[in-house]
Amino acid sequence: MPAYAYILASKPYGTLYVGSTGDIARRVWEHRNGEGSIFCRKYKVFTLVYFEQFDFTRDAIACERRWKKWKRDWKIDLVNERNPDWRDWYDELQNWV
């Protein structure tokens, strides 16, 4: 079963949140509906701007931990590389996962 590391944003270049999950569509839905982290609710961080898929949960968690240690600019660069318009990928998830 795949697992995912993901980055949410409040707006382009705004507040970022890094997480990991086994069900990315459900987890992002939870964030958007107030069932995710307190941080996301407080700072309105709901836009899925980047994610990576892994074969094993341990790899997604390791990626999340690595990203959390990164400088903010590095995370912004990662998003800009793959999603330069900072589009919300949530509606497109069914095409990718």
Question: What keyword list fits this structure?
Answer:
97 residues; alpha+beta; GIY-YIG endonuclease; 3-stranded antiparallel β-sheet; 5 helices; 3 strands; 44% helix; 22% strand; globular
- Quaternary structure annotation: single chain
| Helical fraction | 40-55%
Which descriptor suits the 3D outline?
Answer: globular
Q: Which fold does the CATH topology refer to?
A: GIY-YIG endonuclease
Biggest sheet overview: 3 strands, antiparallel
Named at the architecture level, the CATH assignment is 3-Layer(aba) Sandwich
Please, could you describe this protein's structure?
The protein has 5 helices and 3 strands. It has 97 residues and is an alpha+beta fold. The protein has one domain (3-96): 3-Layer(aba) Sandwich (GIY-YIG endonuclease), CATH 3.40.1440. Strands 2-1-3 form a 3-stranded antiparallel β-sheet, with helices on both faces. The longest helix has 13 residues, at 57-69. The radius of gyration is 12 Å and the shape is globular.
